[in-house]
Design goal:
Number of helices: 25
Shape: globular
Helix content: 55-70%
Order of helices and strands: HHHHHHHHHHHHHHHHHHHHEEHHHHEH
Number of strands: 3
Distance between the termini: 65 Å
Radius of gyration: 27 Å
Strand order of the largest sheet: 1-2-3
Structural class: mainly alpha
Strand content: under 5%
Amino acid sequence: MTSTASEAQQGRAPGEQPPSWQQRLRRFGYVPRPVIGLHGRLVPPYSKPGTHLWRVLGVPPVLAGHLVRWAAWGGPLLIALVAGLLRFWHLGEPEAVIFDETYYAKDAWALINQGYEGQWPKDIDERVLDDPSGVAVPTDPGYVVHPPVGKWVIGVGEAMFGFTPFGWRFMVFVLGTLSVLMLCRIGRRLFRSTFLGCLAGALLAVDGLHFVMSRTALLDLVLMFFVLGAFGCLLIDRDWARRKLAAALPYDDEGVLRPDSEVAERLRLGWRPWRIAAGVCLGLAFGTKWNGLYILAAFGLMTVLWDVGARRTAGAVRPYVAVLKRDVTPAFFATVVVTFVTYVASWTGWIVTKEGYYRNWAEAEGKGGNWTWLPDWLRSLWHYETEVYNFHVNLTSGHTYESNPWSWIVLGRPVSYFYESPKPGKEGCPATEARECAQEVLALGTPLLWWASCFAVLYVLWRWAFRRDWRAGAIACGIAAGWVPWFFYQERTIFLFYAVVFVPFLCLAVAMMIGALLGPPGSDERRRAVGAVGSGVLVLLIIWNFIYFWPIYTGQTLPMDEWRDRIWLDTWV
């Protein structure tokens, strides 16, 4: 690039001298921050990984070059493979109905077999475990308080592998493994770094809460998967929209891309398939648990603000007005309308069978009123939803493992999904033990990862507020959308495992913090070495911490003293 073009990029006329303060500071080692051109600001390039590490390990240069090129997919696939193997190990154990599997496994089986949930007898769990083929699906409709998507997902695994613990956990395991792969790729796109993306995915792979939830047939891991999918789709849409803006902007005589207010304010971005895909994912999240609505609101606002930033960067004088005219209406249809259409479609089984709970309410009890022009099934569904809403907001009955959302980030009160006390000489308990052993599945996040995330959350908030870093803002949005709404329901019975929805964003926050510890581009070798040692120690400690708690994530039998060694806080019992 010519010097004239370089001066134009920096906003100076050809031949104009830099400010005198820069000239005076250069004698003390001052180096101006590199000026990023307009195209680089609209479409930031990915960092190019070097081959230095592979050469140190003795890998031939040609093979090292191939490994670097394959890293963008090879690294995420390798991390997902490891995560999948860890989660698949003894997936059917404990061979029991643990915690809320007693609701969702059976409801899923009913959905797969008859299209609506049934009213199961209270003492059916043991019969299901002893002889699942001999258990008939009840035809009487059951009153359930969560939408059907998550149970349909669980039911797919049961259709493939039977009405067994392995069957009802299988699809949750699949989504848990895929979410690790997705986070690697999302982190890579967010940070423009394969290393940081893979680091975020690796941290998710060794998080205890995500691990336990990936091996348990509950709805929250399914919700997390669709939320993460929506975030990834919106991230791709952001890049797509900015590339289209960059392609429409003019170049000057020096070949430099220039902002143009008319293009930035008038260009219609047209068909945005990734935003529609995000709407489908948000609809599936809403169709799994209702707190998906808060995610919709937060992500919808985030994607519109991204459009404002893109048009401002492209030269819009009034970017908010431009977005209001060009982008808000299409964004509303692609997210909100698509979300609600997807949600209603998820009730198809209940609609077409006509035998589900409250299915015939409009015909039997809802006659008259101002809304009789609507289809009966829609009025019945609305009545069902209002009853469920009243149930949720009035759910204040106490529970041993309930917790306040303030305590989640520090793992104040995890949930014990399964606990037994094998006698000496039984079920893996050493015969030499003087007392009974402990066998537990504890839904506990990897402590060192979560405690490190406390600092990482503060870091991304600082980075967003004072550096205007959109990446930090996106991470903060994901955390807030999954966490903050629960503060409005202080009287409701809620649990720490709800936090699995924002665990991927905690991992992104920690990865971003570690990236800062490693040092910015251009740092000297000493700064890089110190940062690498500190970051490496932190990551290794997190991995060790996961390994240490492995027995109480997987329900292994431990002598009582070894089990107590892992109960670091009194509130974990």
